[in-house]
Amino acid sequence: MDQIKIGKFIAERRKSVNLTQMQLAEKLSITDRAVSKWETGKSLPDSSIMLELCEILSINVNDLLSGEVVTMENYNKEAENKLIEMVKQKEMTDRRMLTLEVFIGITATVTLFVMLAIAIFVQMEDFVKFTLIGIGFVLFIIGCLFALRIEQIAGYYECPKCGHRYVPTYKAVNIAPHLGRKRRMRCPKCNEKSWQKKVISKE
To answer: Is pLDDT of 71 > 90?
Structure first.
């Protein structure tokens, strides 16, 4: 989505209904600074107020996200472009999340080993050593749980037998044996168990 274009469109529509930024902000129970950010393309309206904003500006959500009044002639094309753009944005987000998963996993592992090394090689009271080791394991487990959650929701798993791509349950990801980004799970479509690889796109 072109935030600059959307911002200019919001400004044009606001002026066409004879509202100042302050007046529009008051109607939406937000600050005029938020409206200013929309109109300069620095941010987009929150989804929770989009419908109300559109009603005030006498447009629909499709018009708002397109940055122009969409005619029936190009409605389908605009809708298709938005769908493609949403898919691309999801794929980019999933790639970032999977990178974050690796970072979390490495950080949690390094933290555990540092805590263990300190407890083993540094002279200190026994209860301090046990505390350090305990903290290390707690942080490691929390990191693993977060990483597994990302592994579950980012992208899809592809069944090599039927080609079905799906998002498994958290439990399935948690208990499945894995090698890198492959996990041995049961496909919900063909019901066969196999080593399934992680993929980014749905198709």
So the answer is: no
